[in-house]
Amino acid sequence: MTSTSTTRAVLFVDLSGSTRLYETLGDERALAVVDGLLSVLARVCADCGGRVIKNTGDGAMCVFETADAALRASRLMQEKTEEQREPGQPGLGIHIGCHFGPVLEKGGDLYGDAVNLAARVAGVAKVGQIITTADTVGMLSAALAVRARQLHRVPVKGKQKAVAIFEFLWEEDTEELTALGTRTDHSRVARLVLRYEGREWRFEGPGELSIGRDGGCDIVVGDRKASRQHARIERRRDKFVLADHSSNGTWVQVAGEAEEVVLRREELMLRANGVIGLGHSPSDGQDTPVEFTCT
Question: Which of 56, 87, 245, 270 is the most exposed place for a label (fewest CB within 10 A)?
Fold first, then answer.
């Protein structure tokens, strides 16, 4: 079996939220929704000149000849995923990772450093994000490169130095993105105050806060049902996103709203003010919840 060496853009797209979907809709309906979205993503890949190399559980590995084609497909995949969401109903989200580099194609599959790196950055991406690398950004046209915002560096197995990663912004319009190319504005309505057992944390700059029972967390809690690394709050431009990583889930009660939101390995944008229950509802009175205020 012969192999071919070439340079391509490798893209991994993974679905999030399927567990909750199966719990809410039942196996048959949930499977139909998952398969339907995977079919939509495959069509987007083909329409942008790419190929689906293989399915990877709730996701797929795709390949494109150019970085532009891969990032255009990524953006369209996010847009199509948003379109399938029904207001008030549980839905699926996707996160995408992409890297442009040399690959070895053999027997219909892809191998090599570019594949490993694309998978690594896909694992870094959060729901609704497209994460890529400096090598990919360097191959983009000017019209698309302006959408790339450098984040930080991540360690990659087999590499001595951490790799710089970029977020590809797919929602903003051109004027906003042009301004972002010169500076990141952290002054726009972006302040989060957290309170727990008499202590207060103010979150105003870029970065993230960790919450859990582990002593290494930024906010260490004594809640018996909380996980050691329970949740993370990340600033994304002028928004604060709570991501659950726990075994028992995270409950969010926004002040003035009747229903709580339960997160199970999912994300939620925090707004207004309220309380966060770690591993159980804050209304059951078992332990002290984390209070939050967004301004």
Answer: 87
Which candidate, 205, 290, 206, 288, places its Cα nearest to that of 244?
290
Residues 58-67 have a mean pLDDT of: 94
Q: Which stretches within 167-290 are classed as H helix?
A: 174-180
Residue in 218, 215, 227, 217 with CA at minimum distance from that of residue 200: 218
Per 3-state DSSP, the chain is made up of helix, strand and coil in percentages (nearest 5) of 25, 35, 35
pTM score > 0.85 for this model?
Answer: no
Q: Which residues of 221-258 are buried (b: 16+ CB within 10 A; e: fewer)?
A: bebebbbeebbbbbbbbeebbbbbbbebbbbbbbeeee
Closest CA to 165 of 205, 137, 186, 126: 137
| β-bridge mates for residue 178, sequence order | none
84 residue type, one letter: Q
Tell me what pLDDT residue 182 has.
Answer: 41
pLDDT of 61:
96
* 8: nearest Cα among 117, 152, 143, 121: 117
Quick check: 131 and 71 in contact, CB under 8 A? no
For 159, the token pair is: 């590499």
The residue that leads in pLDDT, 185 or 97, is: 97
Q: What b-and-e string marks burial along 155-166, b requiring 16 or more CB atoms within 10 Å of the CB?
A: ebeeeeeebebb
Beta carbons within 8 Å of 281's beta carbon, 6+ residues apart: 251, 253, 260
* Residues in a beta bridge with 97: 12, 131
Give the dihedral sign, CA 73/206/123/267.
negative
Distance between CA atoms of 78 and 40, rounded to whole angstroms? 11
Question: What is the spatial distance between Cα 1 and Cα 107, in angstroms, rounded to a whole number?
Answer: 7
